[in-house]
């Protein structure tokens, strides 16, 4: 179809619509054709056509009559009988008789036929198509937004220097671990420097309770040991190669002294 997807929709209940069944087959065609004609030449269910100049039919009037399959002289009377449309206007017949339709609202311009379809939007607007289009547009916009967001994040990542891991001293959970180490050993570590950094990495990997457990376990084991007590410090306890074995040391065990050979 090369009509720019313009549709005149004939609703299924037309088959049993008493107003349509009351028409002759020729009038039913005139009615359907008027609808299609309104789609092509009208706007939002309103069709305005100058059918006559005085008593003389215009080309537009002849074209409309031809489309509806009615003689030009019967055009207005036929249209006036069609359901679901209101006819407004006046026309002068060849017998110099003036027909008036839609009194009150009728335009004063003799020979101008105006048809208004009732419930045009309800029946003729492709509401499902419209809804689909709306959804599609929304999806497209959402995707666009997401795409933009991803792009923005990417740019942010590319332009922002990588943050160094937070130092132990500025991490409140690491501070808890350091405080516990100080409480148990009576020392005054601040969680700064390499030891603090290693603690924070262990904290992020294993959690704060694992860090606390290593502190308690190793303090219990090393505090009274003349040589090992010096190693109760963050740089030793949270060394990446040893933290896990400290964590898995049996409580209160003795003997081997792990952690000092790497
Ligand atoms: Zn931390």
Outline the secondary-structure elements.
Layout: H1 18-21, H2 25-41, E1 46-50, E2 52-53, E3 56-57, H3 59-68, H4 75-81, E4 85-92, E5 98-101, E6 112-117, H5 120-124, H6 127-159, H7 172-185, H8 193-206, H9 208-222, H10 234-237, H11 240-247
Antiparallel strand pairs: 1-6, 2-3, 4-5, 4-6
Helix pairs in contact: 7-9, 8-9
The structure holds zinc ion.
What does this entry look like structurally?
- This protein has 262 residues and is an alpha+beta fold.
- The protein has helices at 18-21, 25-41, 59-68, 75-81, 120-124, 127-159, 172-185, 193-206, 208-222, 234-237, 240-247, and strands spanning 46-50, 52-53, 56-57, 85-92, 98-101, 112-117.
- It folds into 2 domains: 12-124, no CATH class; 168-247.
- The chain has 11 helices and 6 strands.
- The protein is rod-shaped and about 130 Å long.
- Bound molecules: zinc ion (ZN).
Give me the secondary-structure category. Answer: alpha+beta
Work out the count of structural domains.
2
Largest sheet strand order: 1-6-4-5
Biggest sheet overview: 4 strands, antiparallel
- Described by the principal axes of the CA atoms, the overall outline is rod-shaped
Are there runs of 5+ residues with pLDDT below 50, and where? 254-262
Q: Quick check: average pLDDT?
A: 83
**Ligands bound here?**
zinc ion
The helix tally amounts to 11
User: Helix and strand succession?
Assistant: HHEEEHHEEEHHHHHHH
**What's the number of extended β-strand segments?**
6
Tell me what portion of residues adopts beta-strand conformation: 5-15%
Cα Rg: 45 Å
Q: Percent range for helical residues?
A: 40-55%
User: Whole-Å distance between the termini?
Assistant: 81 Å
